[in-house]
């Protein structure tokens, strides 16, 4: 029994020292992190006639275990599409707010969730329906990638 306990303690020590599962947050806790922070805000297109269907929220999550295995899609685009699917008949989103939430426990388990909150709309004109304007989301993704690239080269 004592040998098994010692073996288990050694295994946990080796795994915890070999890699860490940390998540990007404005502040980091050494033992536990659970932080929500903003990414961006996009005002909606006020030039088209539409009907507001209600508030929606979409999420996209990626997870990591021991900093060794990481899976998931926490992209803004996935969270945006998830929010679009929340109300039937939604053509687009306006007044979009994008946040992220990072969780980490002892650096062993972590998750990163992108959260899109917005108003779901349905266009009055049939010609605009089923043609969601993803330009704002794509623009945000490009801006984020450009920012990261600049940070990397500094």
Keyphrases for this structure?
154 residues, 3 helices
Tell me about this structure.
Helices cover 29% and strands 39% of the residues. Strands 1-4-5-2-3 form a 5-stranded antiparallel beta sheet. The protein has one domain. It has 154 residues and is α+β, with helices and mostly antiparallel strands. The chain is built from 3 helices and 5 strands, in the order αβββαββα. The model has no long low-confidence stretch (mean pLDDT 75).
Q: For the largest beta sheet, what order do the strands appear in spatially?
A: 1-4-5-2-3
What is the mean pLDDT?
Answer: 75
Rg computed from alpha carbons, rounded to a whole number of angstroms? 20 Å
| Terminal-residue CA separation | 54 Å
Number of helices: 3
Q: In this structure, how is the largest beta sheet organized?
A: 5 strands, antiparallel
| Percent of sequence in beta strands | 35-45%
Total strand segments: 5
The count of domains is 1
Strands, helices and their partners?
Elements: H1 2-18, E1 32-42, E2 50-65, E3 69-72, H2 76-84, E4 92-105, E5 109-123, H3 135-153
TL;DR of this structure?
The protein has 154 residues and is α+β, with helices and mostly antiparallel strands. Helices cover 29% and strands 39% of the residues. It has one domain.
């Amino acid at each position: 029994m004592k040998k098994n306990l010692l073996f288990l303690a050694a295994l946990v020590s080796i795994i915890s020292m070999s890699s860490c599962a940390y998540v990007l947050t404005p502040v980091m806790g050494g033992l536990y992190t659970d932080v929500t922070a903003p990414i961006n805000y996009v005002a909606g297109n006020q030039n088209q006639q539409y009907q507001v269907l209600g508030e929606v929220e979409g999420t996209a999550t990626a997870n990591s275990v021991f900093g060794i295995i990481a899976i998931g899609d926490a992209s803004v685009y996935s969270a945006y599409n998830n929010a679009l699917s929340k109300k039937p008949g939604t053509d687009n989103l306006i007044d979009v707010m994008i946040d992220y939430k990072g969780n980490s426990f002892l650096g062993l388990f972590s998750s990163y969730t992108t959260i899109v909150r917005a108003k779901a709309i349905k266009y009055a004109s049939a010609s605009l329906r089923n043609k969601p304007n993803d330009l704002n989301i794509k623009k945000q993704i490009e801006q984020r990638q450009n920012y990261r690239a600049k940070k990397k080269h500094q």
